Each structure stands twice: as structure tokens, then as C-alpha cells.
């Protein structure tokens, strides 16, 4: 058996990384479709885990940007369906990370991230308002 060169090993590694990357994206899309048909929250959580895997396999800054937005959207969806603020906080964090990667030259993408971040903050504020009760929030707004 002939030993492999470092170049061959590197290209095999990249090929496997690409195969894993695209299968992760396919798994993510399958989970989203399954959620739309069956309406199970577990499907969104499974899709989120696939997005986290894809984030670790990013090949370029653009792909990482799309992964971050996907993670933020999944957290936002989970956060809007549950009473906990944890998913909304995670969504804000990932939108901020995507905003740091987005280029102002890509005005459309930059604006979409800003709008999504704004909606996420508003949803979080409304949820805090409901959780705290109207009287407590009214007092804090007056200060």
C-alpha cells in the first residue's frame, strides 16, 4: 500500500467536510418541513442542532452568516412559542453576531438582519411585559 501525501489527505478531509456540510443542511431542511406538517416543537429543536453542527463546518464567511441567521430564526421561533426568555436572548445574540459579519455594502442583507433584530427585541420586551405584569412594567417605564 502506497502512503498518501499530505495534499491527498487534505483533499480527502475537505471532501468529507463538504459531504458532511451538505448532509447537515439537508437534515436541517427536512426537520423544518417535518415541523410544518406535524407541528412538533421537537423538530425545530432538532433542526437547531443541525444548524449548530453546520456552524462548526462553515467554509466561508457568507455560509457562516447564513448559519447564524438560521440559528437566530430557530431560537426566535422557539422563544415566541414558549414562556422562557432564553431562546429570545439566544436569538438576539446570534443576530448580533450575524450583524457583525454582514457588510454594509450588502445593504439588503444588512437591513434584513437589523429588522429581524428589532422584531426580536420587541418580542422580548412584550414577553417581559406579560411576565412581569402590567403594574410593574408601568412603574419601570415612568422612571
From TrEMBL:
UniProt keyword Signal, yes or no: yes
InterPro entries reported for this sequence: TPR-like_helical_dom_sf
First and last residue of the signal peptide: 1-21
Keywords, alphabetical: Signal
Gene3D superfamilies in alphabetical order: Tetratricopeptide repeat domain
Name of the protein described by the UniProt record: TPR-like protein
Amino acid at each position: 500500500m502506497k502512503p498518501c501525501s499530505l495534499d491527498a489527505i487534505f483533499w480527502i478531509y475537505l471532501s468529507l467536510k463538504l459531504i458532511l456540510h451538505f448532509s447537515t443542511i439537508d437534515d436541517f431542511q427536512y426537520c423544518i418541513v417535518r415541523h410544518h406538517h406535524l407541528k412538533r416543537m421537537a423538530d425545530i429543536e432538532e433542526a437547531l442542532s443541525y444548524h449548530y453542527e453546520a456552524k462548526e463546518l462553515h467554509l466561508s464567511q457568507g455560509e457562516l452568516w447564513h448559519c447564524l441567521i438560521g440559528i437566530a430564526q430557530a431560537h426566535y421561533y422557539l422563544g415566541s412559542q414558549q414562556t422562557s426568555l432564553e431562546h429570545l436572548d439566544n436569538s438576539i445574540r446570534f443576530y448580533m453576531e450575524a450583524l457583525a459579519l454582514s457588510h454594509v455594502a450588502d445593504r439588503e442583507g444588512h437591513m434584513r438582519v437589523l429588522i429581524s433584530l428589532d422584531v426580536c427585541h420587541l418580542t422580548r420586551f412584550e414577553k417581559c411585559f406579560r411576565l412581569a405584569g402590567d403594574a410593574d412594567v408601568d412603574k419601570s417605564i415612568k422612571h
